[in-house]
Each structure stands twice: as structure tokens, then as C-alpha cells.
Amino acid sequence: MNLQHERIAGLCEELRLPFVAQGYGAAAQKAAVLGTPYSDFLEGLLREEAAGRTVRKQSMMTRLAGFPAIKTLDGFNYEFAKGVKRSQVEELAGLGFIERNENVVLVGPSGVGKTHLAIALGYRAAQAGVKTRFMTAADLLLTLTTAHRQNNLKAVLHRAIKAYRVLVIDEIGYLPMNREQANLFFQVIAVLYERGSLIVTSNLPFGQWDATFAQDTTLTAALLDRLLHHAHIVPIAGESYRLKHQRQAGMVQPAGGDRATGDRV
Ligand SMILES: Nc1ncnc2c1ncn2[C@@H]1O[C@H](COP(=O)(O)OP(=O)(O)OP(=O)(O)O)[C@@H](O)[C@H]1O
């Protein structure tokens, strides 16, 4: 490395331009050979810096979000998912709902793609540089009860939870909560109300949510009021996608299938 390269590398470090530092040598050589105008050379380098930063931010946001797997909207089969309107999902994919602090609620039976769509929307947000976090309802409750026991609930709610622009809460309704857990859960919904976006999935119709929230109809009504005030509801029906392949292989009966005659899909 000659002295000028060293000085440029030093300045890039001082100014925090890692991608200029990385690309400068090759770009300078190429520009010298091609006789590239100075302004084009500079623009090219700055573009490399901007592109590098975008990719770095996308991967950091995706890592922070803690998705259990990456699922995309491109990988979603609309023909299989009954009741999902492609136009509604495409509108949500534009992420305007996050700017407006609106929620998305995906409701339907097991295996129909609720988590898939929730992750796909969350992943899209993370790729757009939005601070996103994925948690199952059980994980969230564990975090909250631990914080509560350690007298740390306020800090967790106001520093951690409130810092997310998008919080994905998966599988509401699978575990019934006791009164303390229901209260803690309510506080998350209240803290993010009109300040962030929730993407939640549930196997329960809203009329049965009090069964999850300690049979507390008042708390459940207040919670649903906040959750659904500015919400996009995506109902999904049909059979479990998990069983699709087994069904195709003739290993599983469709719901309501004729067992006596052994009819298979
Ligand atoms: N319409 C679909 N297109 C593509 N993949 C799908 C579709 N529906 C479900 N899947 C896939 O099937 C598996 C189960 O789906 P998913 O976990 O999203 O279901 P779910 O409705 O959240 O179920 P549960 O309530 O049991 O958690 C996942 O691997 C998911 O990617």
C-alpha cells in the first residue's frame, strides 16, 4: 500500500466509510485504465458505501428480529390459503401500516400459514430497516414475568418493547394465561398502542380470547379494543399446510374425509 492509500484508508476509518475503504483501490485502478471522469468515480464510490450500509443494516435488523426461520411473501401459496386476499397482503407488504402505527391480526386454525405471513411481513419490515422483533406469546410472557419478578418491568416495557417499531407476537391463544400473565400481556398492547405496530397470530376467534386471558372479560375487551382499533384483520381458513405433503402421499385423511371407503386427497 503506498502512502496515499494509507492516508485514504486512515481518513475512511476516521469518517467511518468502510465500503469506500474497501472499494477504493480497485475503483481507482479501473478509473485510471478507463479514464473515468472524476465525478463518476466519486459517485461510484459513494454508491458502494450507500449499498454496503443498506445490506449491513438489513442483515443487522434481520438478526435482531430473531425470526425462527425466514419466510417470504414470494414463498406463500395463495391458492392453498383459503380466504386470504392477495390484494390485502400486497397492500400490507407496502409497509404503510407501520408508518400509520396500525396492527395486523392473522387468525385461523393450525398450520394454515399465519406464522409464515407474520414472519414474511416482519422480514420485509426488517429489510426496510425497521426495528422489528419476533416473539411467541410464550416467549414474551417469560420475558415479562422474569422482568416483573426482578422489579424490572417498567424498564423492559419502556426501553425494550417500546423501542420496537414492529412487534410480532405469534401463537396467542395456545397457552391460557393466569391473571398476572394476562395483566402483563395487556401492558405490552397498551404500551405500543398508536406508537408501534403489532403483527399477531391466533388460532382463536376474538369471541373466545377471554379463555386465554384468565377469563377476564373486562381486560380482554380492553385489550381487543386497543389491538383492533387500527387493525388489518387477515382471516385464513382451510387445512394445515403441514399435512399437505402427507395427504398428497396418501398418509393422512382430510378433515371430514370418508374413512370407511379410505378416500384420500
Ligand atoms: N399458503 C402457504 N404457502 C406456503 N407455505 C405455507 C402456507 N401455509 C403454510 N405454509 C408452511 O407450512 C408450515 C406451517 O405454517 P405456519 O407455521 O405458518 O402455520 P400457522 O397457521 O402459524 O400454524 P400454527 O397455528 O400451528 O402455528 C410452515 O412451514 C409454512 O411456511
From TrEMBL:
<dbReference type="InterPro" id="IPR002611">
    <property type="entry name" value="IstB_ATP-bd"/>
</dbReference>
<dbReference type="InterPro" id="IPR028350">
    <property type="entry name" value="DNAC/IstB-like"/>
</dbReference>
<feature type="domain" description="AAA+ ATPase">
    <location>
        <begin position="100"/>
        <end position="237"/>
    </location>
</feature>
<dbReference type="GO" id="GO:0005524">
    <property type="term" value="F:ATP binding"/>
</dbReference>
<comment type="similarity">
    <text>Belongs to the DnaC family.</text>
</comment>
<comment type="similarity">
    <text>Belongs to the IS21/IS1162 putative ATP-binding protein family.</text>
</comment>
<dbReference type="InterPro" id="IPR027417">
    <property type="entry name" value="P-loop_NTPase"/>
</dbReference>
<keyword id="KW-0639">Primosome</keyword>
<dbReference type="InterPro" id="IPR047661">
    <property type="entry name" value="IstB"/>
</dbReference>
<keyword id="KW-0238">DNA-binding</keyword>
<keyword id="KW-0378">Hydrolase</keyword>
<protein>
    <recommendedName>
        <fullName>Replicative helicase loader DnaC</fullName>
    </recommendedName>
</protein>
<keyword id="KW-0067">ATP-binding</keyword>
<dbReference type="Pfam" id="PF01695">
    <property type="entry name" value="IstB_IS21"/>
</dbReference>
<dbReference type="GO" id="GO:1990077">
    <property type="term" value="C:primosome complex"/>
</dbReference>
<dbReference type="InterPro" id="IPR003593">
    <property type="entry name" value="AAA+_ATPase"/>
</dbReference>
<keyword id="KW-0235">DNA replication</keyword>
<dbReference type="GO" id="GO:0003677">
    <property type="term" value="F:DNA binding"/>
</dbReference>
<keyword id="KW-0547">Nucleotide-binding</keyword>
<dbReference type="GO" id="GO:0016787">
    <property type="term" value="F:hydrolase activity"/>
</dbReference>
<dbReference type="GO" id="GO:0006269">
    <property type="term" value="P:DNA replication, synthesis of primer"/>
</dbReference>
